[in-house]
Amino acid sequence: MITGAPGSGKTVLAIELVLSLLAALLPVGAPAPFRKPESGLHGLSAHRPYGRSVTAPAWQQIESERYEDFWAPFDARFDFRPSPEPYDEPAINEPAPSITIDLSPIFAISGSAQFAAAQDAVNTLGLLAMTRVFAPSQRLLVLDWHHPSWWFWPHRQALDENPRWPVEIFPDGDYYVFLSEDMANGTFGHPWEQTLCVFGASLTGVLAPLLTSWLPVKRARS
Fold this sequence. Notes:
Layout lengths: L8 H17 L33 E3 L5 H12 L19 E5 L1 H4 L5 H21 L6 E5 L5 E3 L1 H6 L16 E4 L6 E5 L4 E5 L1 H12 L4 E5 L1
Antiparallel strand pairs: 1-4, 2-7, 2-8, 3-4, 3-5, 5-6, 6-7
């Protein structure tokens, strides 16, 4: 059972219902076993409710001249190996701890309403995990290969009545990276391998259980 902060029972039940429906919808077998770290969702304190609407934007585009200022450190840290041709292997040195989620069951139903719903579910669950892991004021770096980079505030996105995703957590089209500024936690989406690598102890402990409840594990590093 997924557990949450005190007083979040209805939200937890709703999430569990959505996950059970997704598990029944996708053409996959039983997910690979995954042991949730003890930290997981347990013991996380609830963020204080917001007393007013958040009006600051959730996304801020970074100047194109600074493209290499952010990709170069990522490349150096993770040995990023892009390829213009589709291939089925990791494009980074996946750090430990990390869990790489197999998204092929979703890609198998591409073009359908079920695909759109599952894609939205990955983005929504990723956002939920980020609001649990990162402080309300914390921004993330978002990289989109050969496209503009962004600063992203997960809490603002969650509270936006009409949220937009100029870059998505789900890698539908290119390499997408969501990264804490210290590079300790994040996600790496690989559209050709059809995977999402979740890395860092904090983010893995929260997001991996949400995704592996209905999607299989491709790889895991502890």
